[in-house]
Every structure is written in structure tokens, then in C-alpha cells.
Design goal:
mainly beta; 6-stranded mixed beta sheet; Urease accessory protein UreD; chaperone
């Protein structure tokens, strides 16, 4: 029996990237309405030299309408593999009970993750530049390497009041990672409703 009880919505994603493939996965934000129950599983399989970048932004409650999450739960499990070797296993759980916990959401309604997997980080300088892209944005933001010495990529976390701030930071990091790989600047997703360009003034 699944706890909490209720009618769960579920989503399962399976992405298989061929050799030297490159995929950027940036869906629209998820809004978990009050009493909502949602569970997702995302499995990413990378062949040799394949690279995956994924972004997830979740809002707990429709706060724009003055609604908060009093009941409900969001669960996610992301797995990134290269062959038989896991690069990242990332289970997440957000609930109404953890909304106000200092070690959980600490009353903040928005949570986000950016994962860049399949690339060896050159050194700590790239991480520091990604961290510097937080400037001027509301919320708590952390960025760290995946795997020993960043051999598998990097991961960014956002916790704060604003989906706009989360998307701004992730867009800046995304642009920086593309520049590092000598790729063209990113085309911002249409499903991310920006009122202004987050890349203007970014360095």
C-alpha cells in the first residue's frame, strides 16, 4: 500500500543516448496543487561520450493564487547510467510535512535541480563560475561536482521563493556549460516564460 493513500499520478521517462549524443531536457515547471500526489522516475542511459543536461523545477502549491500545499507529496527518482556504471542516483521527496522543516523546504515553495552528466569537469574553476551566476537572485543555491573529482559532471540545487530566480540561475549555468563545450549560446525554452532575458549581463 502506497503512503500517503490517494490517487497517485505517475510518470516514467526512459532516455537512451547513442554514442556522442547530446540531449538537453528542460520541461515546464511542475506545480503540485494542494492534496496532489505525484511520482516520477527518469532513467537516462548514456553511451560513450554522450552528455545529458536536465532541469526540474517544482512549485509546492499554487502560491500565485494564495494557495499553499497543506497536504500532498511529490516524489522523483533520477538515474543516470553509463553502461553498467551509475553516474548519479538521485531520489527526492517533497511533502506538505517537510514544507516548513529547516532541513526541508524551510517554508519556501520552489525547489529545482539542474544535472549535467557525462562530462569530466576540468577543475574547480568552472564550478566557482557557476556558483557566481547566483548573484542578484533570491533563494538558496548550491552547486557541486558529481562523482570523485567531478568525473561525472555537476549538479545544482535551488530552494527559494521564485521559479523565475530558479530558471534565471539554471539558464545562466546552462549558457556557461555550453560555452565551456564551445557550443552556440542556448535558445531559451518557450515553455519557460521569461519577462526578461536571464543571459543579459551574464559573464
Amino acid at each position: 500500500r502506497q503512503v500517503p493513500e490517494g490517487r497517485w499520478s505517475r510518470q516514467s521517462l526512459h532516455m537512451h543516448l547513442a554514442e556522442a549524443a547530446d540531449l538537453e531536457w528542460m520541461p515546464q515547471e511542475t506545480i503540485l496543487f494542494d492534496a496532489g500526489l505525484f511520482e516520477q522516475h527518469c532513467l537516462v542511459e548514456l553511451a560513450r561520450d554522450a552528455v545529458w543536461l536536465g532541469v526540474e523545477v517544482v512549485r509546492l502549491g499554487c502560491t500565485a493564487a494564495g494557495q499553499r500545499l497543506n497536504r500532498g507529496e511529490w516524489r522523483s527518482r533520477l538515474e543516470v547510467w553509463r553502461g553498467e556504471h551509475p553516474l548519479l542516483i538521485d531520489p527526492q521527496r517533497l511533502s506538505a510535512e517537510g514544507r516548513d522543516c529547516p532541513h526541508g523546504m524551510d517554508t519556501e515553495p520552489v525547489y529545482g535541480t539542474l544535472v549535467w552528466a557525462g562530462v569530466q569537469l576540468p577543475d574547480g574553476a568552472l564550478l566557482e563560475r557557476c556558483r557566481s551566476d547566483r548573484r542578484g537572485l533570491a533563494g538558496t543555491m548550491v552547486c557541486d561536482a558529481i562523482g570523485e573529482a567531478g568525473h561525472a559532471g555537476l549538479i545544482c540545487r535551488y530552494r527559494g521563493p521564485s521559479t523565475v530566480a530558479a530558471r534565471f540561475w539554471f539558464a545562466r549555468v546552462w549558457a556557461r556549460l555550453r560555452a565551456f563545450r564551445q557550443l552556440p549560446p542556448p535558445a531559451l525554452p518557450r515553455v519557460w516564460p521569461f519577462q526578461e532575458n536571464p543571459l543579459l549581463g551574464a559573464s
